Amino acid sequence: MEGTIPPRKIGNLEDYETACKEFAWASVDKEFSWSEGGVYNVAHEAIDRHASNWRRNKIALYSITANNEVRKYTFGEIAEISSKLASGLTKLGAEIGDRVFIYLDRTSELYISLIGVTKMGAMASPLFSALGPEAFKDRALDCGAKYVITSPYLYKRIEPVLDDLVDIEKIIIVGDNADLGDITVKFDDVVASGDSCFKTVSMQPSDPYVIHYTSGSTGKPKGVLHGHKAMIQQAYTAKMILDLNEDDTYWCTADPGWVTGTSYGVLAPWYLGVTIVSYEGRFDADVWYNLLEKYGITVWYTAPTALRMLMNAGDEIVEKYDLSRLRHICSVGEPLNAEVVKWGDRVLNHRIHDTWWQTETGAHMVCNYPCMPIKPGSMGKPIPGVTASVVDENGNEVPPKTEGYLAVRPGWPSMMLGIWRNTPKFKEYFRVPGWYISGDLAFKDEDGYFWFLGRSDDVIKTSGERVGPFEVESALIEHPAVAEAGVIGKPDALRGEIVKAFVMLRPGYEGSDELKKEITNFVKTRLAYYAYPREMEFVTTLPKTRSGKIMRRVLKAQELGQPVGDLSTLED
Ligand code: WT7
User: Fold this and answer.
1) What is the ipTM of this complex?
2) Per CATH, is 459-560 categorized as 3.65.10.10?
3) Architecture of domain 74-227
4) pTM recorded for the entire structure
5) Whose CA is nearest to atom 14 of ligand 1?
6) Where does this protein have coiled-coil stretches (predicted)?
7) Could you tell me if the CB of 334 is within 6 A of ligand 1?
8) DSSP output for 331-376
């Protein structure tokens, strides 16, 4: 299929350089209806606006279920159902600022709920349906969630922990077979009770609309808050980096339980009036290529692990599908190997564009601008309006080709507003004067391209998902057989990294494959399904500092057969 896709001119390098020079976020802000005194709310920008113009009858969403049923919604329909939901929630007692969990598989109700909750000024927190009951409980206790929108099977999963969650007022269940009790109501009934004339609540730019939980190297997951004004940067980058236009059909493979799935999966494309495709099912190379063909996807935003899985599925399979509508592919979440970029060139006939950002940054930061020549393996350059660099621990910029901390000058529009009830954690990002410190290590080359080197902390990235070793260790030691545990990320050709656990058993327990399986299953219920250790090793000691902290860096060096470095703090 080489050469069959006509190249589309999407600007040139000069455009990028001019944009960098002349850029002002204020001019982007002017494009929003709120700048004319309209409603300040991302749901209004993404949906309501279109419902009152010709896009009313344009398809906003193709939602494909795991059994391949297709549900279609126009912008007008999403507007109406989400308004009724917002109104129905208000009638149930929900108020501005309440935390509403959306704990659903990737179905149309998930998208509608995100818009509905946002319309009424509450804070949505979409949670991966892969989360286990204890992980759900931790998050609900952290932010005092009052409402939960979920499905019958997920409701069953969290039922055992509900007694501890006294803040929850109502659980709204999608589906007919909901068994209803004191606090449960049916989603359809809430929508039916609502008024489609509900007026979307006008918020302040720095009022949060979403909480995304993410992991660090210490403590439990933290709730990162993003405000309505984040859309300024999300919309700008959806246009300039993802190259989204009115006539595109777009597929973002990220789940809305992850910031990519809300910003670039729902809000920014809908702001631009783009038709989105969502797929509930699991990864399967044939299914994925078929979706690209069948829906004529033009812009595709995905992740390195998925691309590696497609690469492993073989080149021949690609020949079976007509991917000629595809125009632009972007990637995010973990390092995109040069090898994958070259495979994209050769087999997909597209240069895959890497984008670097984080839950905390809320939107793209360092990217391969569409018109930029790409160096395979590099993350690209800072987008216009963002000043990023590589610095030492005092905040001094280091020379090209020198390793340092990937840092950003604070003040970009989509920067997190804070971390729910955890100001100390928030402040840690700004410990170096004048900079936001991302937690990543990188270098810049002579041409200003950024190259990812690793994390400066112990955070693990497995299949693009962020996993905190501390959370996994905490879950492990709750098992009666486990005395102590140390957890690291082990390099893996497919998943980037896998979670590996070193486990010390309590006296009286014998290490066996069966016990490994049991402990693994135990961890799955506490955390998300992706966060369990794919490898476990029973050990008799763990390297610790004199103050008793497990030295993961030593475990990792031993695992990789590398020098263990400075051991002066190791206990005897
Ligand atoms: C971490 C952020 C990325 C938005 C979704 C939320 C790693 C992300 C890249 C990339 C190498 C990357 C970093 C970063 N990461 N993008 N293009 N190349 N590494 O992401 O869960 O908040 O994770 O993911 O380590 O700090 P997140």
Assistant:
1) 0.99
2) no
3) 3-Layer(aba) Sandwich (3.40)
4) 0.95
5) 358
6) none
7) yes
8) EESS---HHHHHHIIIIISSPPEEEE--TTT-S--EE--TTSPP-T
